[in-house]
Design a protein that fits this description.
The protein is mostly beta strands. It contains 5 helices and 26 strands. It has helices at residues 37-41, 128-131, 275-286, 325-329, 348-356; strands at residues 11-15, 18-19, 22-23, 27-29, 32-33, 88-89, 99-105, 110-117, 123-126, 136-141, 147-156, 161-166, 187-192, 201-218, 225-234, 246-249, 254-262, 270-274, 294-296, 300-301, 304-306, 315-320, 336-340, 363-370, 373-380, 382-383.
Length: 387
């Protein structure tokens, strides 16, 4: 994909449900956009947490199979109030085991987040919005401080899950996967790279709601909105940089992947994708199955830069790179792209959605406006250098 649709800046999110009758209107995707700290990632209320305690790391149990989908308790009136909610807690070995810190860099921005070690041979899961549009990914093992590069194996933008593999052999201890049913009022711990601080810290809270709905939108105009369903809402604080990290239960087993948190309200919440949901994406990627919204391998690239304005006609091209698929198809700066692959995008986000559907090497029909006239052509998408 081109520079106009490959920004690694991190999401803000809108939340539609309410909690205890109080509407929650703003949520942050929790990766730090390092070149947009004041605007997006770190508001004054999002202060770093205390340094983690770092004792030696004990042994670790192997991951267990994912549990069945999370369900709401049978009685809709069962909503106990949270108990034992705290802000910061010491980060013991059990809340660092299987956690990595992620630094992702792309052509124009950098971001920081967290990842979950799934296998000792190097598979790591994180939110796609942490590494989206990056061309370099580095992971630091929280328990040892060892930093290595990683590559994208596959991702599902609609479910905000990405699977990485480290490119160098390094000692990794996988997390233990929770297979128990998650219930309201369960104690949880959120561990991650809060505010891109470079070490793991932990907050404690309780499960508040299940099966919630979150609308995630990238902080930059290039990132499309994604609707996440079935997420777990807890009272544990989460911060920019925690995205992609584990939400643990009281036994230090991973019940979810931290993805978003509220801001602009004193009643803070964090939101996690259920671990079974995330692992379904991982299993699909490992099987080489690109059905649905799973994409394996590089994105498609057109070689265009588009305006951030919304138009009734289509997407306005500000640049067409020489020798690119778009240039070879006859597109020029100033054209308005009105159709691609049977879709009519009106914004950069909508164009990004279309490109996520396309494999590199796909032949697609395109239509554009120039000087009031309609032009049609065909292009072959190229592999993008960014994730």
């Amino acid at each position: 994909m081109d520079a106009s649709t490959d920004s690694p800046q991190e999401p803000t999110v809108s939340l539609t449900p309410s909690r205890r009758g109080v509407p929650l209107t703003l949520v942050l995707g929790l990766a730090v956009a390092c070149n947009a700290i004041t605007a997006v990632a770190v508001a004054p209320r999002l202060m770093p947490r205390p340094p983690a305690v770092a004792p030696s790391t004990p042994g670790v149990s192997p991951p267990r199979p994912p549990s069945s989908p999370i369900t709401v308790p049978s009685s809709p009136s069962y909503r106990p109030r949270p108990v034992e909610t705290e802000a910061n807690v010491p980060t013991s070995d059990r809340f660092k085991r299987g956690v990595v810190l992620i630094a992702a860099e792309g052509p124009s921005v950098s971001s920081a987040g967290t990842g979950i070690v799934l296998t000792a041979d190097g598979l790591i899961m994180t939110n796609y919005h942490v590494v989206r549009s990056s061309d370099t990914i580095r992971v630091t093992v929280a328990s040892t401080g060892r930093t290595v590069t990683a590559r994208m194996v596959g991702r599902d933008a609609k479910r905000d899950v990405a699977l990485l593999r480290v490119s160098t052999r390094v000692a990794l201890e996988p997390v233990t996967i929770d297979t128990d049913e998650v219930r309201i009022a369960d104690t949880v711990f959120v561990s991650g790279n809060a505010n891109g601080q470079g070490f793991v810290s932990t907050t404690k809270g309780n499960v508040m709601e299940l099966n919630q709905f979150v609308r995630v939108k990238g902080s930059g105009p290039n990132d499309p909105e994604e609707d996440l369903e079935g997420v777990i809402q807890s009272s544990a604080d989460a911060y920019p940089g925690d995205s992609g990290g584990p939400t643990f239960d009281a036994d230090a087993e991973v019940l979810g992947m931290t993805t978003a948190g509220t801001t602009g309200t004193s009643d803070r919440s964090s939101f996690a994708i259920p671990i079974a949901t995330a692992l379904q994406v991982v299993d699909q990627i490992k099987a080489g199955d690109e059905s649905g919204t799973v994409v394996i391998g590089p994105k498609s690239y057109l070689g265009i830069v588009v305006s951030d304005t919304t138009s009734r006609d289509g997407v306005h091209l500000t640049q067409v790179l020489d020798g690119s698929p778009a240039a070879r198809a006859g597109l020029r700066p100033g054209d308005v792209l009105t159709g691609i692959h049977g879709h009519s995008p009106k914004t950069r986000g909508q164009l990004s959605d279309v490109l996520d559907m396309l494999e590199p090497g796909s032949q697609v029909d395109v239509e554009w406006l120039r000087s009031g006239g309609i032009h049609k052509g065909q292009l072959t998408t190229a592999p993008s250098s960014v994730n």
